[in-house]
Design goal:
Order of helices and strands: EEEEEEHEEEHEHHHHHHHH
Number of strands: 10
Strand order of the largest sheet: 1-2-10-7-8
Structural class: alpha+beta
Radius of gyration: 36 Å
Number of helices: 10
Helix content: 40-55%
Distance between the termini: 125 Å
Largest sheet: 5 strands, antiparallel
Length: 336
């Protein structure tokens, strides 16, 4: 566990290494970890919380019986599924929540599809071991504001733990609320997906002007649409230059793009990969041609050897009782 304290905030990262993952039952809690006078746990549903996705939550009710009914804890947090093959491909989702006796857990019902999780080539489960991290940023000032507001709205009656979190704001509801009309329709489902995984994409734009927000999400949609529709073989020099321009435009809108940058950088490197792939393909084709020629030559040699042996046997047969003479000798007639 790592922590880093400042005057206004406290940050902690807790890593949960889950062994024998395939043997887990319906749900599983991590061990408790302590932060800012509060106990936390990670809660996972390895087979999905009634969905075909891995479900992961941050649980703040580990010591709920000792807290009473009027406790609150505001936290901005990230949950990360570690990629054990390529750390840059780890899957992270982030959100914020005011934890209380009525809402003791919060997180993501659809974190990653189960088929992706269990694909051995994806690196999320290695040797039947899965690794989940929780990063918690607790802001003292923001927490106090949230607690003050909550005290004015709720009573002290505690309720029992709930499995499913309340639905968070979606990109579609954000579009309707803001009155955004000029975002390309092809971009909407892509933006819906990434905003569900990274809610701060929406939160970071709420105080912007309508025109700025439309430009920002259009720029994000262009990059997502490019990555969604292009194939590796399409990444020639023109395509790489186009993606680079889209990326530089997107960076001007000050999104937190740490989750997207590895995918963009990987795509930009595809030009060299494609060029080398073409070279490798040509070399393989040349090798195939040469191997066929060698095979034909070997077959020809074998055929020639067989013909040689047959000819030698025929020569031996016709040479029996045969005396060679000089063909230039005269025939003669017995006289002088």
């Amino acid at each position: 566990m790592e922590n880093e304290n400042t005057k206004q905030k406290m940050f902690e990262k807790f890593t949960w290494t889950i062994q024998d993952f395939s043997k887990l039952d319906y749900n599983e809690y991590s061990e408790e970890f302590f932060l800012h006078d509060h106990l936390w746990r990670i809660l996972i549903y390895p087979r999905g919380n009634n969905v075909d996705y891995l479900s992961i939550y941050l649980d703040g009710g580990g010591n709920v019986e000792n807290l009473g009914g009027a406790w609150y804890k505001f936290a901005n947090f990230k949950l990360t599924l570690i990629n054990q093959i390529n750390h840059k491909m780890s899957r992270t989702m982030e959100t914020e929540h005011l934890f209380s006796a009525k809402e003791i857990d919060w997180g993501f019902l659809q974190f990653i599809p189960l088929y992706e999780l269990h694909n051995p080539n994806n690196g999320f489960i290695v040797n039947d071991t899965c690794i989940v991290e929780a990063e918690i940023l607790v802001s003292k000032l923001k927490e106090q504001n949230q607690v003050d507001q909550a005290h004015n709205k709720t009573n002290d009656k505690p309720t029992k733990h709930i499995d499913k979190p309340l639905p968070q704001e979606t990109f579609t509801t954000f579009v309707e609320l803001m009155g955004l009309k000029d975002i390309q329709q092809d971009f909407i489902p892509l933006l819906e997906e990434v905003c569900a995984q990274h809610p701060l994409l929406i939160n970071s734009q709420k105080k912007r002007t309508l025109m700025y927000v439309e430009w920002a999400f259009t720029a994000l949609g262009r990059v997502l649409h490019f990555l969604k529709t292009k194939k590796v073989k399409d990444m020639n020099e023109d395509a790489c230059n186009h993606l680079q321009n889209l990326w530089e435009e997107l960076e001007t809108f000050k999104f937190d793009l740490t989750w997207l940058e590895p995918h963009v950088q990987s795509a930009l490197k595809m030009k060299n990969y494609v060029e080398r792939s073409v070279q490798v393909k040509k070399k393989k084709e040349n090798i195939c041609v040469l191997e066929k020629e060698i095979k034909m030559l070997k077959e020809k040699i074998i055929e020639t050897k067989v013909n040689l042996e047959i000819t030698r046997r025929e020569l031996t047969k016709i040479s029996e009782a045969f005396v060679e003479c000089d063909l230039d000798d005269g025939l003669g007639y017995g006289g002088r």
